[in-house]
Amino acid sequence: MYAVFKRELFSLLNSLMAYITIGIFLLAAGLLLWFFPDTSILDYGYAELTGFFSLAPFLFMFLIPAITMRSFAEERREGTYILLATRPLTDWQIISAKYCACLILVLCSLIPTLIYYYSITKLAMPSGNVDTGAVIGSYIGLLFLGASFTAVGVFASAITKNQVIAFAIAVFICFIMYNGFDALAKMELPATFQNFFVFLSVNEHYQSISRGVLDTRDAIYFLSLVTFFLLLTRFAIGGRKW
Q1: What is the tally of helices (H) and strands (E) in the chain?
Q2: N or C: which end of the chain has fewer CB within 10 A?
């Protein structure tokens, strides 16, 4: 499993697409936080990263599918997955190796954003007057969100040979999970259905963690989401073997 993980990680690190995608993510986040008047921290007047943590999920919807779209799709298109499947590895080991490699790259894309936290601590009056607890909670929420979107992206890549189609499917599923269930919950439906859609909404659980309070129900929700999509990936590649 470690050999597959190392090969997948080095393959991602040697891919120009990964660096371009991460660069666009950081550039977009920087422009939205510091330059655009409607979302600029400097114009907002408060030393907080609420704007970044509100925008990051939408940037993740494009960043993560772009990273994961090649995980299975490219190997199936080039025919190298047959060689991988004949190795003494289980489907779960292959899926876990690819998932962990993509997730590490997502985490690496978040590390440079810590400079935003350092910047607002220096800009605050007095210096350091920042709600650190809320920032830590928001980063934990982003990690859970990134883990969930990565599982979705790996699943999308497992059901098609075309990377562009895998990207589109992953973006669509991530958008539905983040915004779609919220929209359904706001419709005039019986309270039972509204509560059900609120529970399914990724945004609801992400916002809950971003308040700085880590609820075990939110953690269980995200871990269940990751497990669910990895199970779907297992069924997808297992059924294709038959």
Answers
A1: 14, 0
A2: C
